[in-house]
Amino acid sequence: MAIERFEEHRDLLTAVAYRVLGTVTDAEDVVQEAWLRWSGVDTAEVEDDRAYLIRVTTRLSIDRLRRVKAQRESYVGPWLPELVGAVPDVPDVAEHAELTASVELALLVVLETLSPLERAVFVLREAFALSYAEIGEIIGRTDATARQLARRAKQHVRERRPRFEVDRAERRRLTERFVGAASDGDLDALTAMLAHDVSLVGDGGGKVKAPVRVITGCEKVARFLLSAASARGVRRFLESLGTGPAADLETAVAEVNGAPAAVVTVGGRPVSVFSLVIHDGLIQTVFLVANPEKMSRL
Q: Would you write out the chain's pLDDT as a tens digit for each of its 298 residues?
C-alpha cells in the first residue's frame, strides 16, 4: 500500500527536512506535504521510493526555507534552530556519527548563512552521503553544478564551523563544571573556563527574557551568566515565562542536538538550554535558547 511505502521512509524524510530547515515544525509540515504529493501520484510507476521521496521532500524544503528566511530576518534578537533531544538512527544511513554531527547546534547556526540551495546540497552530501549524480537529480541541476555547489558550501562551512577538539566525555565534564560554577556564583571558576573573546548568543524570540544582542568578552559573558543564575535573575526569568515559583527548578546536563548541554527545567519542563562550543579546552561560544517554541521537542 502507498501509505506503508511512505511510512517506511518517514524518519529519513524528517531527518533531511530538519537539517535543511532548522525547525522540527517546518520539517514535519514539509513531510506531510510530501505525503500529499505521494498520495496523488500513481506509485506503481515509481521505480525507487526512497529516491523519489527524498527528491520531493528536499525540493519542498528548499521552497519553504526561501519563504521563512525573510521571517527570520525580522525575528526579535538572534535566531537559533529549534532543539531536539537524542538523535535517532535513520534507516539506510550508514554513518550515524556524521548524521549526529549534522544536527549540532553550532553547525546548524552556520548552515543558516548558506543559500537554501547550498544548504540542501551540503546536507545531502555531508550528512546523507548522496552522490553528486543523485543530488543533481534532486535539485534539478547537472552533476557538475551539484559538485560546485557542494564545494562552495563545504568551504563556507569549514571557514565558519567551530572545530570540536575534545571528545564527548570531556565536553560533558566541562559542561558540568560550567553548570556548577554558574550555580555556585563562582566568578573566578566561570571566568577560567571562558575564552577571552567568548560570545553568548541568546534566543528568547521576544517571548521571554534573553539578550537581544550578542554579548562578547569574557568578563561580560561571565557576569551575565552569574546574574541570570542568581535568585533575582531566576525569578525575573520565571516571571517572563509566566510560570510558578523556582522551588522545582533544576539544571542538569543532557543530550541536545547530539551533544551535551545544560538544560534548565521547571517542574520537569525545559525552559532554557545552554549549549557550549569548546576549543582548546575553553568555551568559545554559549548558545542560550529560551524561546519556549524552540524546546517543545526536548
A: 788 999 999 999 999 999 999 999 999 999 999 999 999 988 888 899 999 999 999 999 999 999 998 888 889 999 999 999 877 667 666 556 677 888 999 999 999 999 999 999 999 999 999 999 999 999 999 999 999 999 999 999 998 876 655 678 889 999 999 999 999 999 999 999 999 999 999 999 999 888 999 999 999 999 999 998 886 777 777 777 776 565 678 999 999 998 999 999 988 889 999 999 998 889 999 999 999 999 888 8
| Helix ranges, the chain (H) | 2-7, 10-21, 24-39, 49-73, 96-101, 105-111, 116-122, 132-139, 143-160, 168-184, 187-193, 218-229, 231-241
Q: Is 277 left (phi over 0), alpha (psi -120 to 50) or beta?
A: beta
**How crowded is residue 98: how many other Cβ atoms within 10 Å of its Cβ?**
13
Whole-model pTM? 0.91
CB count in 10 Å sphere of residue 42 = 7
Kindly state the cell numbers that stand for 77: 534578537
Cβ-proximal residues to 184 (8 Å cutoff; 6+ apart), any chain: none
Contacts of 177 (CB under 8 A, 6+ apart): 189, 193
DSSP strand pairing (282-289 vs 194-203): parallel
Among 113, 127, 115, residue whose Cα is nearest residue 14: 127
Measure the CA–CA gap between 15 and 103, rounded to whole angstroms: 9
Report the relative pairing of strands 282-289 and 269-279 from DSSP bridges: antiparallel
Displacement of CA 93 from its chain's centroid (Å): 19
Task: Give me the amino acid identity at 28.
Answer: E
Which residue carries 510558578 as its cell?
244
